Amino acid sequence: MSKGNALLTARSYLTILIGFLLGFAIVVWVEKQMPTRVESSTGMTLSKDFPPLPGARALTFDEAIWARVAWQYYVNNTQPNGLANAHDGEPWFSLWSVGSYLFAVASAKELNILTTDEFDERITAALFTLGQIPLNAQGLPAAYYHADTLKILGKPDSSAIGMGRLLNALQTLLWRYPQHAAAIRDIFNQWNVGALIENNTASAAAAPLHHWALATDEPRNSFGYRLYASHMLRLINSAAGLAVTNPPSGQQMIDIDGIMVPDEGLRTPWGRQPSLISLPYLLTGLELGFDAQSAEITWRIMQIQQRRHSLRVRKPPISTDYAEPAPDYVNDLPNRQPLQNSALRDATPEQTAITSTRTAFAWYALFRNSWSEALRQQVKSLQIPGKGWQRGLNLNNSVNDIVDADTNAIVLESLAYITRGQMLCLACLTPSSPSTSSAGATP
Prior knowledge:
The protein is α+β, with helices and mostly antiparallel strands. Helices cover 45% and strands 9% of the residues. It has helices at 3-33, 61-77, 95-110, 116-130, 160-176, 181-190, 195-198, 223-233, 238-244, 279-288, 292-310, 342-346, 349-352, 357-366, 370-378, 405-420; strands at residues 37-39, 92-94, 144-146, 252-256, 259-262, 267-268, 271-272, 354-356, 383-384, 388-394, 399-403. Strands 8, 9, 10 and 11 form a four-stranded antiparallel beta sheet that branches. The chain has a three-stranded antiparallel beta sheet with strand order 1-4-5. A two-stranded antiparallel sheet has the order 2-3. Helix 2 runs antiparallel to helix 16, helix 3 (95-110) runs parallel beside helix 16 and helix 14 (357-366) packs antiparallel against helix 15 (370-378). The longest helix has 31 residues, at 3-33. The chain is globular. Mean pLDDT is 80; it is low at 37-41, 201-209, 267-272, 337-350 and 432-443.
């Protein structure tokens, strides 16, 4: 081979090698721009500057109106069988959305939107229908159902996170409204809730080293939602208590603007990006009352958001809530599938990030300061009288116009918290007082 041909051959190899090194350098550079992650398995203690929790007060006239706008969603979307659609006009519900509905009914009762008779009628109907839904082979309710026929939609697998929310709601009903205790016990006599843990090979043994493994397609598979659901799932049995309270293997903390918060593990095509999820921690505060861990995480997330809000030179926003797609059940109900954006299902978290109505109201209820008031003001225009509250604002400030059960339930829970405190409260079992001087009958 001539010297010239040898150089040409070597040049092609050098080009490939240089391209590889350049690509590797880019990957290393991108990795260095990511926030620092550290392993952590220890609990979090409450900061000394954690603010006092606000006291109860009556709703203002505007707040009473907002509550009635939210309740109108359920007036429009309650099925004859007593359960409610998860999305406006779409005939499906999930375990999670049933929990939201039960909390919404309890909140409407506390806000004097519903009379005692109306409340009892709705809860009785809902509990009766829950006792009639078909179960999967493990004796558990499935994740999704058709709201008219109660047919299981999609795979018959249950949802541990959805079940956690539903159990939170049922436990609240047991304590606050004992007249429905017998119906709730009848449901548990039919449901094999222990199968949530027994069928989980990663946590079958009651040993601290075993972890709670969720299904790979669990839509809310993150540390925050695990922590929220564990508050009630731990009561299933002794094995459950150990499994669900043990953090996932490799749980990490992430440094965002000098504040350490749990890495929620949201993945994108570019790797694991900075992501915060506030909703499960906020729900803990609204429904069960904060524990030190959930309160501290919530406080840290709020500090990150406040700092970014007050910067003169803006940093890219970090959302704490994300639009959730409706379940895909086109093969089950081809004529009545939900109207949904298929692009949403495959989008990265950054593309589905929203300033959500539900979290804005929850921040407004739990931390009443200028930042939470400004956040609530952002979503004030998203109410549709006669229909309910829209989901939120997209990253480009366009309206995410979906009206769903979860948004309107959390608006009601937040406003009920303002008047009465957390939903499950052993020292709050006293007769309700009017939430506002203008409180009236259901619309």
